[in-house]
Design goal:
By secondary structure, the protein is mainly alpha-helical. Among the domains are: 52 residues; 50 residues; 50 residues. Helices cover 75% and strands 0% of the residues. The protein contains 9 helices and no strands. Helix 4 runs antiparallel to helix 8. The longest helix has 42 residues.
């Protein structure tokens, strides 16, 4: 009996040791897998040299939450309102000035009837809050708009001086594409398409970020290769503008 008890204890101890070794091996495999995944993610170059998370790229806060569908109800509401406006003005051919006048007529008529009917039913008239634009908000918007316009003008000046041929060609190509779209679509439809893209493309990109970045890295390498061939054969032979501004 004693020998049988000792052999049973030895078997249990060996089983525990084998379980511990297998669990440690599985932990090592998990750690190795997680480290390999993290190293693989670190090797992937983000699009446009992005280093921050996509939420911070969009400025954070409520606008980023809307574009990335962090608040699904608010994003769906905004997209639904934009779709309703596009259908109202584009498909039903309703005019903005007509809509504003009809809305004001309806609102003023309802408030006027409510205010006069409250005297007969012994109820207080509706409280209409006073709406005014704060001075700080108007100043901040004007300063931000001024900064963006000045930056755009400075970029256009740098391009016009001929210092960056690659940027010049990209801007020309972008303006050419916008001109084609403007000839095919009106401003409201173009604005609606851009609005829908802002509510769909960032969300899809964030969901499949690693795959898209990996594909973008390969495409960027191929574009650089083709641009190098074009630069060596054609662009390098084009005379460039002055490198420095003339001082008066």
């Amino acid at each position: 009996m004693a020998e049988h008890g000792e052999t049973l204890i030895e078997k249990i101890a060996e089983k525990i040791r084998s379980d511990d070794s297998s669990s440690s091996d599985s932990d090592d495999e998990k750690n190795h897998k997680s480290s390999s995944d993290s190293s693989l993610k670190s090797k992937i170059h983000r699009l446009f040299g992005r280093e921050k998370p996509l939420h911070q790229v969009f400025g954070g806060g409520k606008p980023a939450d809307l574009f990335l569908w962090r608040d699904k109800k608010a994003s769906a509401l905004v997209l639904g309102v934009a779709t309703a406006i596009w259908v109202l003005f584009e498909l039903m051919e309703y005019h903005l000035l007509t809509l504003v006048c009809h809305s004001l007529i309806l609102s003023l008529a309802l408030l006027f009837l409510w205010a006069n009917a409250s005297t007969f039913i012994n109820k207080s008239p509706p409280h209409i809050p006073q709406v005014s634009i704060p001075e700080d908000l108007a100043v901040n918007v004007a300063l931000s708009l001024r900064f963006e316009i000045n930056r755009a003008l400075a970029s256009l000046r740098e391009i016009a001086l001929g210092r960056d041929l690659k940027k010049f060609l990209s801007v020309i190509a972008g303006l050419w594409v916008v001109s084609i779209l403007g000839g095919c679509l009106n401003f409201l439809t173009l604005f609606y398409i851009v609005f829908v893209l802002l509510h769909t493309v960032p969300f899809i990109y964030e969901k499949y970020e690693d795959k898209i970045d990996s594909f973008g890295e390969k495409a960027s390498a191929e574009i650089k290769k083709q641009y190098a061939i074009l630069d060596s054969k054609v662009l390098s032979k084009i005379p460039k503008g002055p490198l420095k501004d003339k001082k008066h």
